[in-house]
Amino acid sequence: MATRIDEDYQQLKKSVHIYLIERLDEEGVEVEKATRESLQAFVQTAVGQYIANHRIPLATPDQTMLARETLDEIVGFGPLEPLLADDQINDILVNGAHVVFIEVAGVLQKVQTRFIDDEHVVRIIRRILAPLGRRIDESSPMVDARLPDGSRVNAIVPPIALDGPSLSIRKFSNKHLSATDLVNSGAMTSECLDLLVSVVEGRRNLLVSGGTGTGKTTILNMLSQYIPKDERVVTIEDSAELQLNHPHIVRLETRPANTEGSGKVTARDLIVNALRMRPDRVIVGEVRSGEIIELLQAMNTGHEGSMSTIHSNSAKDALVRIETLLAVNGYDAGERAIGRLIGSSLDIIVQLSRLPNGRRLISEVVALKPTMSDPYRMESLYRSPDLDFSPPAEEPV
Ligand SMILES: Nc1ncnc2c1ncn2[C@@H]1O[C@H](COP(=O)(O)OP(=O)(O)OP(=O)(O)O)[C@@H](O)[C@H]1O
Ligand SMILES: [Mg+2]
Fold first, then answer.
1. CA distances from 109 to 101, 180, 317, 321 (A)
2. One domain for residues 216 and 118
3. How far away, in angstroms, is 296 Cα from ligand 1 center?
4. What residues contact 276, with CB distance under 8 A and at least 6 apart?
5. pLDDT per residue as tens digits for the range 22-72
6. Do 165 and 126 belong to one domain?
7. How far is the CA of 218 from the centre of ligand 1 (A)?
8. C-alpha 177 to ligand 2 mean position (Å)
9. Within this chain, do residues 80 and 28 fall inside the same structural domain, yes or no?
10. Which of 22, 100, 131, 224 shows its CA 20 to 30 Å from the CA of 249?
11. Atom 10 of ligand 1 has which residue's CA nearest to it?
12. Is residue 33 situated within a structural domain?
């Protein structure tokens, strides 16, 4: 029996696909204009004909699967369709035609999904990019894009990607994790929630720090609902994924350079512009470059209560990362002045972690407090009861 991983089956899929394109062409069917139902009927008939003409022994369930997968090729994103439709899946990671991983509940696992060959992966990538007027090829081998449902996509192809075209999809989730969900699932205690609410309501400047996929955007979304409703909020993101629960929001999105190399709009440009828009708070999706300078200055000059996220594995690392970002992006000041800028602008770091079993949680909330002798000192306001913060046992002498 043919299975999805069977080479023969993949070859059959390829031949059926080619046959179907010919049939659609012969019949003058315009895929864009046809309804899904009529295409489904057309594909079913054509697949049946192909199987009969070539006397291929295929059980009815396999034939149904073949017809469904062929329809997904014609109108959807091919082998990705069932994965996109599955709400349990957070991430889909394609490493070339034959290796596909998914992430469910924080844990990565390999799946049986296969593409026919690398060309097939590239065809699906182009299908994703086409409506956006974006292209991918050897001269422009990396692209960020978004699916119609809001899922975030990155594609990178050979020769840069050595093991074949790679696709990384962070699926858009409309099942918002509410504050109650996060408390109930043990991501934070209710005391931690009370603390964070008072931080947001009290207009403290806050940075959510964590590794990839630890839930930074989720926490930023959750916190936004505690911004008083009479305030004006401007958000700045590389790819808009915040779904802030607030009535007065202006959303801005950065833009990469076009193929001629012009038209680029950076997060830095957008923070400068946002400050001319009379915001009460500025929310930056993630700081990863020079925009840190403008963000800290905004936090320091009447836009208290601003928030962002940063990629770091601990609150201490986040501070080191900020210092590095300031230094490499031309914030020309001595160590002490850099410390003073950080100490006078940033108030709170919310650190996130993902445990080996996939569970995500707020590991620590830290306050930055200026002191007489130091630009700031870190003070822990909350530590997850599920983590061990005790210092390592001293080595026996
Ligand atoms: N506490 C949680 N419990 C369960 N799932 C969570 C939790 N927090 C986030 N998630 C899920 O994990 C995925 C990643 O979350 P999110 O996008 O917020 O992470 P991120 O740190 O912003 O990721 P990235 O580094 O890619 O920007 C999402 O699908 C989200 O729904
Ligand atoms: Mg994020």
1. 5, 28, 29, 31
2. no
3. 25
4. none
5. 998 898 888 888 888 899 999 999 999 999 999 998 888 999 999 999 998
6. yes
7. 6
8. 14
9. no
10. 131
11. 215
12. yes
Do residues 126 and 195 share a domain?
no
Among 144, 173, 202, the domain boundary falls at 173
Whether residue 216 has its Cβ less than 6 Å from ligand 1: yes
Binding site membership of 170 for ligand 1 (Cβ less than 6 Å): yes
Q: Which residue has the least CA distance to atom 23 on ligand 1?
A: 213
Q: How far is it, in rounded angstroms, from Cα 229 to Cα 125? A: 41
- 93 vs 136: CA distance, rounded Å: 18
Q: Which residue, among 216, 269, 194, has the nearest Cα to 206 in the 3D structure?
A: 216
- Same structural domain, 119 and 266: no
The structure tokens listed for 304 are: 């208290």
Interval between CA 56 and ligand 2 midpoint (Å): 48
Q: Can you spell out the DSSP letters for 198-248?
A: HHHHTT--EEEEESTTSSHHHHHHHHHTTS-TTS-EEEEESS-------SS
Tell which one of 217, 237, 288 to mutate to probe ligand 1, the residue whose CB is within 8 A of the most ligand atoms: 217
The pLDDT value recorded for residue 36 is: 86
Ligand nearest the Cα atom of residue 87? 1
Nearest atom in ligand 1 to 241's CA: 17
In tens, the pLDDT along 206-250 reads 999 999 999 999 999 999 999 999 999 999 998 888 888 889 999
Nearest protein CA to atom 28 of ligand 1, as residue: 90
CATH of the domain at 286: 3.40.50.300
Looking at all shown ligands, the one closest to residue 172's CA atom is 1
pLDDT in tens, 362-393: 999 999 998 888 889 999 999 999 998 877 77
Co-location of 196 and 319 in the same domain: yes
Give yes or no for residue 218 CB within 6 A of ligand 1: yes
Please give the tally of structural domains in the chain: 3
245 & 331 share domain? yes
Q: Which of 173, 204, 219 is the last residue of a domain?
A: 173
| Shortest-distance atom of ligand 1 to CA 213 | 23
- For ligand 1, mutation pick of 172, 218, 312 (most atoms within 8 Å of CB): 218
Looking at all shown ligands, the one closest to residue 208's CA atom is: 1
| pLDDT score for 5 | 53
Residue 287: strand, helix, or coil: strand
Residue 22 has phi, psi (to 5 degrees) of -65, -45
Q: From CA 62, how far away is CA 9, in angstroms rounded?
A: 10
In this structure, are 193 and 327 located in the same domain?
Answer: yes
